[in-house]
Amino acid sequence: MRLFSVLFLSITLCAQALAACAQAADWHESPEVAATFAAAGVAGTFVLYDPAADTLTGHDRERAETRFVPASTFKIANTLIGLSCGAVSGVDVILPYGGKPQPVKAWEHDMSLREAIKISNVPVYQELARRIGLERMRAGLIRLNYGNAEVGTVADRFWLDGPLRISAVEQARFLVSLAGKGLPAPATYQAAVREILLVEQTPEWCLFAKTGSAMSVSPCVGWWVGWVEKGGRIYAFALNVDLGQEADTARRIGLGKACLKALGVI
Q1: CA 63 to CA 35: how far, in whole Å?
Q2: What is the model's pLDDT at position 249?
Q3: Of the chain's two ends, which shows fewer C-beta atoms within 10 Å, N or C?
Q4: pTM score, two decimals?
């Protein structure tokens, strides 16, 4: 019991130290990003974290520091925790979707996490979360300093309905650590998660990203988070917007890329 208490205290102190580092970073409000949002007519925030300069650049700092339900962006942490605790042995292990009709036809297949994260397969990741269980999930979130680390009492809905919440700034910091191999998790598992998040690459840069849509909360929120590797540097980003209509969901990636271009990252 004493060993557990010491371990928990160490994890908590580590999380507090990481949070303090996030607050210490300088914030720069970007007129270019603000203009991008104004042109799109979308309410939301975008933050870019440059760890080399320890700066946060973006639009609407207050919203960037406000926590929202992470929705399917949580698949990143879910994968890493699942691998780390042994709930799944690898990203290519096939998991069942459960056999029930799904709102997205492509989800109605048993599949690996590698495939499931690409199409944001909710039931497959719900199966992973149930295998992890609430106790190990809560411990994993605390260890990763992920948002408020609250999982409630329902093992397969807490990232969709709450109580788990995370801010755009916290998302960017979490992803910088993942991209830089700095999370408190085995390096091989961090590498596996990074691999399945790669969505685009050019001779100049590589883009790693994940979308998310929180449709069962009010207001509905859409996410696009990730990082860019360019010139030997890492730039993590997080966008979240109010989803007022179906068209807003499809615009997340385009808006996020426009912000990255406005800041000269891609």
Answers
A1: 16
A2: 83
A3: N
A4: 0.91
Q: Which of 5, 10, 30, 72 is catalytic?
A: 72
- Judged by average pLDDT, the poorest of 15-29, 31-45, 89-103 is 15-29
Q: Is 72 one of the catalytic residues?
A: yes
Are the C-beta atoms of 48 and 172 separated by less than 8 Å? yes
Distances (CA, A) of 84 to 25, 37, 74, 131, 216: 29, 38, 15, 12, 29
Task: Supply 221's token pair.
Answer: 């929120």
Q: What is the spatial distance between Cα 265 and Cα 48, in angstroms, rounded to a whole number?
A: 9
Measured in degrees and rounded to the nearest 5, phi and psi for residue 69 equal: -60, 130
| Residues contacting residue 61 through CB under 8 Å, at least 6 positions apart | 27, 29, 45
Which positions ≥6 away from 147 have C-beta within 8 Å? 67, 70, 141, 164, 165, 166, 167, 170
